[in-house]
Amino acid sequence: MKFFIDTANLDQIKEAQDLGVLDGVTTNPSLMAKEGITGKENILKHYVDICDIVDGDVSAEVIATDFENMVKEGEELAALSDQIVVKLPMIKDGVKACKYFTDKGIKTNVTLVFSAGQALLAAKAGATYVSPFLGRLDDISTDGLNLIEEIRHIYDNYGFETQILSASVRHTMHVINCAKIGSDVMTGPLSSITGLLKHPLTDIGLEKFLADYKKGNE
Ligand code: E4P
Predict the structure, then answer these.
(1) DSSP calls for 112-135
(2) C-alpha span between 110 and 87 (Å, rounded)
(3) 34 is a catalytic site residue
(4) Rounded to the nearest whole angstrom, what is the distance from the C-alpha of residue 212 to the centroid of ligand 1?
(5) Domain boundaries in the chain?
(6) Which of 3, 14, 50, 56 has the fewest other C-beta atoms within 10 Å?
């Protein structure tokens, strides 16, 4: 399973990249705003800065909601780097734009997906990635993991190549359960990746190994 980090924070992206397990980055307009990145020029430059840190795909979301402007914006984003994946909302014009970019060989990520039907449409339009929002479904007492399982099942039935990018991952158990289901990618905060490191028996064991080494080498 690929690990993407879901942030526009350059320090966190660097930290995940330095760990050696990062496969890409996802951003959205809220995450950009959280970092204080505003204005077209600054936003475009920030995407380039992210691409300079990571080796993999970087999802950059369009703001437009109509086909023509989605295409215009997406083409501008895609021109920044081969790493850019044009992120499009799961609405009618988003599906049309997805097909347009697919035909042009530009990578896409269809976002804000909350049902198996939406995921099926994204795959039909040739999306590179589909982003079901696991955590936001859990937030409203709906089983987000069940949606990931349904999409996996449907995609496997027909051999769709669209990669399931489990989004809105909030913690380590989401990551582990996504891996069990066979999600292709997960995107979450840095803590959902670094949290996987932790086990008290590892810390206790290491402390004992080092203490025993010290005793025998004093
Ligand atoms: C997906 O690409 C979104 O950026 C993201 O995963 C949403 O996560 P949230 O529900 O924690 O905001």
Answers:
(1) EE-SHHHHHHHHHTT-SEEEEBHH
(2) 6
(3) no
(4) 45
(5) 2-216
(6) 14
* Closest-lying ligand 1 atom to the alpha carbon of residue 135: 10
Q: Is the ipTM of this complex over 0.85?
A: yes
| pLDDT in 10s for each residue of the chain, 218 residues | 999 999 999 999 999 999 999 999 999 999 999 999 999 999 999 999 999 999 999 999 999 999 999 999 999 999 999 999 999 999 999 999 999 999 999 999 999 999 999 999 999 999 999 999 999 999 999 999 999 999 999 999 999 999 999 999 999 999 999 999 999 999 999 999 999 999 999 999 999 999 999 999 98
Domain 2-216 has CATH 6.10.140.1670: no
What spacing in Å lies between the alpha carbon of 132 and ligand 1's midpoint? 9
Instruction: Say how many Å lie between the CA of residue 116 and the centre of ligand 1.
Output: 18
DSSP letter assigned to residue 39? S
